[in-house]
């Protein structure tokens, strides 16, 4: 647990809730990294299937999502890069 210099001491009643909060925060940080990795693996696998001749509709059918969702995650980097430098 990181202790910041201006944090007040906590009471016994607060310590359980604070410990739970810190634990949940740390879990979210780990899961955010895991989620980013999983999304990249999904994009790479979908690109391989596209290269094998399968389209977004075929991939979508196997994932249980729409073809638009497949198109969206495949083009994520392109959209992200096109948005740089623009005021949104």
Tally the structural domains. 1
The succession of helices and strands, N to C, reads: HHHH
User: What's the helical proportion of residues?
Assistant: over 70%
Structural class: mainly alpha
- Counting DSSP E segments of at least 2 residues, the number of strands comes to 0
Beta-strand percentage range = under 5%
Radius of gyration: 21 Å
Task: Characterize the structure shown.
With 88 residues, this protein is an all-alpha fold. It has one domain (13-82). It has 4 helices and no strands. The chain has helices at residues 12-51, 56-63, 67-74, 76-83. The longest helix is centred in the middle third of the chain and has 40 residues, at 12-51.
Give me some keywords for this one.
88 residues, mainly alpha, elongated, single chain
List the helices and strands and how they pair.
Blueprint: H1 12-51, H2 56-63, H3 67-74, H4 76-83
Helix pairs in contact: 2-3
What's the gist of this structure?
By secondary structure, this protein is mainly α. Helices cover 73% and strands 0% of the residues. Helix 2 (56-63) crosses helix 3.
């Amino acid at each position: 647990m990181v202790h910041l210099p201006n944090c007040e001491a906590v009471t016994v009643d607060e310590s359980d809730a604070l410990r739970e909060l810190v634990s949940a925060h740390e879990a979210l940080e780990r899961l955010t990294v895991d989620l980013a990795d999983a999304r990249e693996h999904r994009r790479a696998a979908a690109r391989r299937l596209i290269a094998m001749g399968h389209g977004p509709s075929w991939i979508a059918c196997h994932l249980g999502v729409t073809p638009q969702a497949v198109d969206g995650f495949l083009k994520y980097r392109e959209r992200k890069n096109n948005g740089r430098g623009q005021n949104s």
